[in-house]
Amino acid sequence: MIRFGRLCYERHLLVAMDGNLSALLSDGTVLCTKAGCHKGFLVDDDLLVVDRQGRKLRGQGAPTSELLMHLACYDERADIRAVVHAHPPMSIAFTIAGVSMARCVLPEVVLTLGAVPTVEYATTGTLTLADKIRPYVRDHDAILMDRHGAVCLGTSLLDAFCKLETMEHTAFITKSARDLGSVKELPPEEAVKLRSMGLKRYGGPPVAVARADEPGAGLPEACLSCSGCSHPSPSGVAPRAELKMARVVSQPLRSPEMEDRLVAAVLRSLGPS
Ligand SMILES: [Zn+2]
Question: What domains can be seen in the chain, in order of their start residue?
Answer without folding.
Answer: 1-273 (3.40.225.10)
